[in-house]
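Hi V.,

You were right to ask for the full record rather than a summary. Here it is.
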Amino acid sequence: MDFDNLLGEQLSSIADDAAPVGTIDPHRAIGQAQRIRLRRRTAGAGTTLAVLGLATGLGFTLTGGAAAIAPATSTGMGLTSSAAPTEHRSVAGTDPLTVDGYFGKLASPLVATSVSVSDSGLQQIEATDESTSTVFTVTLLDSGPDPAMGYPRAPDVNGDTAYWDEAGSLGHLSGVPNGLSWRYSPNGWADLMFDQATASKTELAEIADAVHFGSTAVRMPIALPTAAGFTLGKAASLTFNADGSLKQATITLRAPASTSILTIAVYPAGSVPAGGTVAKCAFPSTGTASSPETTTFLGEDCDGLFVDAYLNSHDPATVAAAASLLNGAVWYGTNPEDWTVNVYR
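Predicted structure:
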């Protein structure tokens, strides 16, 4: 039995019991559970967060991709946040992606390559070491490590409390860090992990120091009509290659009258096989029944983008609404400077 099912059974077994007087902070307990689940799910499988079954990220680089971030002010390539850290992981207005952390200047060979928001609102940003292909992932959480569990103090990060996460914690510290966690706001913690065997404490500290916080809009290469029967979901992604070129952008939408979810993923034209695509970026009202549960829409050369959209429904009205939305979309190509934060027009 996996961790999620075990937790579910335990919660179900006590659901009807009278609640005792508690002494545990529920918000901290939930945050600690998030950390445990995150580590178990990412161990041995890289650290990129899966968004609705897609290995996606939502991000930018300091060369080429920096224009995807739209803060209130910026100086050259240095980015500044548009607001103080907030109650993070929220979606408002017509922008499906507002992140609360991003990388500032990173020492070579590190480049920022990804930021992601899951359908539950969990945020991650990633940086890649081009020399080793090591991916360093920062996850924003509501709670930090518990010192009573053996996590040793690390030097403060930007003046805030920090802890090392070491293999063999709970009294058997190895001295080799698995990661670094630090407080970045009164109710927010950042957790830095990596997907290779080792990383030095110096390197982890340098990466942590390069993270900036503040609610910041991220531009997307898509604009959609608002009257097509869907609303923005929380899951969204934007990933760049190490050279700053677009790798993939993904957003999700929901049909208000049902549980149907439409996922739209775009890639640079030519980066994925074009078999079965519809010429000139046209999407038929019936789509293609690609599985018993899924209707797929494919389009090529949408202003230099390949579109792969799929809907978890065969309902004719919902399928037609999805096709109408896609046919009314504006595609902004692969240059981040041409993109928009107003995804819903």
